[in-house]
Amino acid sequence: xxxxxxxxxxxxxGRGKESRSRILDGAKKILSQGGIEKFNMRRISAASSVxxxxxxxxxxxxxxxxxxxxEERLKLQLAIFDHTIANIPAEAKLPEFIDTYLQNMxxxxxxxxxxxxxxAAARQDDSLQDLFDWHEEETIDRYVRAFRLxxxxxxxxxxxxxxSYLISISAQFEPGAVPSTDKDERKLMLELVHxxxxxxxxxxxxxxxxxxx
Length: 213
Fold this sequence. Notes:
This protein is mostly helical. The protein is built from 9 helices and no strands. The N and C termini lie far apart (about 70 Å).
């Protein structure tokens, strides 16, 4: 019989996990308050109260820090998508989805100063583009499954094209996507975006109509 292994966390493991968490919290603080211009390892050290050499034990570069933060945030967005689509009435699944989804995103603190700083920093690093591509593909897959469940009989390629378009449309709801200097102008813009989204969904689901060739 093999010797049993004690799976309890050792003090060293506990301290290591705490240090890593503090490092990430410090990085989030910098992105929230200073944005990409102030994002570097020395400032992460100061913001987290973790020594620079210790930080390099966990993260070899600021890109590796960004990768962890970005992956965490993108996975949360997908989880919100899944939760939303699973918890609205089936008969109203797609028409109500966008409003409910955006409301859930806001309730989870999405589109904060931290998200703006994280996205700006990550998009300047080509090595992180794969994460954005992965997230978009995962989101498209979810839209296509929702279209199928709602009764669309369009070809998969056409559904994926529609999903890509809806992703670009729904992004216009994000704070900062539409100038907020004129409240009436912003309100009209968001209304037009919402109507466009609704028309695309109606086309997808109206009697199974397929796009013209």
